[in-house]
């Protein structure tokens, strides 16, 4: 919010301009970076704003931690191993090389 401005007045003003803002309950927000790694925001305050003709935008506030490691769940490993018909170790390696992208990992294993 803007300092010195009543939150109710701001919401009213935004509504008059056709903007709609709503709070989104979330326990964690993860931003995956294209070069690998991720930003994790725990217990965030998330707001979604719809602007006519502009689509939606999200505002996320909270304490962020950056990680160069990508967390790969056992479910993801199982799925890749099953779909590509490879051992779990190969599935995990493929997921790590693909930056956690399941589809990319399966495709890379099927090409071999």
From TrEMBL:
GO molecular-function annotation terms? RNA binding
**Gene3D superfamilies given in the database record:** DNA helicase RuvA subunit, C-terminal domain (1.10.8.10), Nascent polypeptide-associated complex domain (2.20.70.30)
Sorted alphabetically, the Gene Ontology BP terms of this entry are: protein transport
Write down the CDD domains for this protein, in alphabetical order: UBA_AeNAC
What does the UniProt keyword field contain?
Protein transport, RNA-binding, Transport
Q: What SUPFAM superfamilies does the record point to? A: UBA-like (SSF46934)
User: Which InterPro entries did the record assign?
Assistant: NAC_A/B_dom_sf, NAC_arc, Nas_poly-pep-assoc_cplx_dom, UBA-like_sf
Where in this chain does the record put each NAC-A/B domain?
4-73
Q: Please state which protein family the record places this protein in.
A: Belongs to the NAC-alpha family.
Stated role: Contacts the emerging nascent chain on the ribosome.
Q: Which HAMAP family match?
A: NAC_arch (MF_00814)
Q: How does it assemble?
A: Homodimer. Interacts with the ribosome. Binds ribosomal RNA.
| Protein name per its UniProtKB record | Nascent polypeptide-associated complex protein
Native organism is: Candidatus Naiadarchaeum limnaeum
Classification of source organism:
Archaea, Candidatus Undinarchaeota, Candidatus Undinarchaeia, Candidatus Naiadarchaeales, Candidatus Naiadarchaeaceae
């Amino acid at each position: 919010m803007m300092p010195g401005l009543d939150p109710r007045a701001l919401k009213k003003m935004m509504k008059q301009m056709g903007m709609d803002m709503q709070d989104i309950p979330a326990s964690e927000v993860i931003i995956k970076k294209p070069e690998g790694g991720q930003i994790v925001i725990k217990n965030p305050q998330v707001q979604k704003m719809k602007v006519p003709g502009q689509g939606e935008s999200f505002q996320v506030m909270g304490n962020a931690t950056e990680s160069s490691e990508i967390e790969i769940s056992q479910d993801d490993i199982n799925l890749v191993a099953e779909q590509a018909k490879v051992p779990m170790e190969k599935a995990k390696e493929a997921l790590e090389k693909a930056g956690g992208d399941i589809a990319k990992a399966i495709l890379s294993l099927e090409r071999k």
